[in-house]
Amino acid sequence: MTTLLRIIKTGFRNIFRNAWLSTAATAIMVVTLLIMTFFAFSTIFVNTQLAQVREKIDLSIFLSDDATQAQIQELQAKLATVENVSSVTLVTKADALKRLESSSEEGQKLAKSASDIGNPLPASFEVKLINIDNISETNSNIRALAEAKIITDTSFDNRDDNRKGVVENVIRISNSVSRIGLVLSIVFLIIALLIIFNTIRMAIFTRREEVEIMKLVGATKWFIRGPFLVEGALYGIFGAIISLLVLIPFSRAVSSFLIEKLGAGPTLEYFVAHFWIIASGMFGVGILIGVISSWFALIRYLKL
User: Fold this and answer.
1) Are 111 and 160 in contact (CB under 8 A)?
2) Which range, of 95-109, 166-180, 248-262, 276-290, averages the lowest pLDDT?
3) Is 195 in the same domain as 280?
4) Residue 61 pairs with which residues in a beta bridge?
5) To bridge 188 with a disulfide, which of 29, 32, 72, 100 should be the other Cys (CB 3.0-4.6 Å)?
6) Range of the domain at 41
């Protein structure tokens, strides 16, 4: 226990021997942790928003005015059995007219005009999907049903309907955010590893005479290496502490904007509810980066 405390004490003292190098290493650690946290927040935020968009997107199946009640019921029953279909809701011609009327002032005018000419709006089925990524395949399966002869069009087939574009954009944005966040996190992670690696390398060169003396008096390899590993871990700990000191007031300052302008309330609630897990993760990542960098530097430059 005494030896361990001495190693920790020496590692802590060594940080202040090279103040400029230690400051640079801690600064890049702070930037790395903030970048990784930012992209974690961005990923959760985008995925939350996309999940809400996905819930609102459905596949509308428009029906012929000549379809009988029996045909409509048969098709509804069959749609419920199609793979990837979560639920099927019938929207009658009267329902469609009411929706148009309640949509906006312009909708009220259009609904009145439609009512005057006998309501040309078609009846339809709103089909909720389990996975909108497979909407094209689901649309094809529905089109292939024997009961589909009363279908005049679908929202996926209709090029004038923007839902297909919305679906494709949702998938594209989700994939892009994940890739960008992963790439930038890896880039800054590598930068942090290199900075701390070089910091420990300089520390080894600076203390080479001290290391030689310790070897001559019979110090163990771990007693010599230990302070350098502790030094690397401390860069991670200090980096995480400073990152949290920056992150907490900053998040409070911009929370109103994020909630009112971007609708990020659920994402902020998630971060608040999991604050200690996130903080622990920042400390864990910081310590891991510091120790790994130090270990590689020791292997490369400290010959015992």
Assistant:
1) no
2) 166-180
3) yes
4) 125, 154
5) 32
6) 2-53+167-301
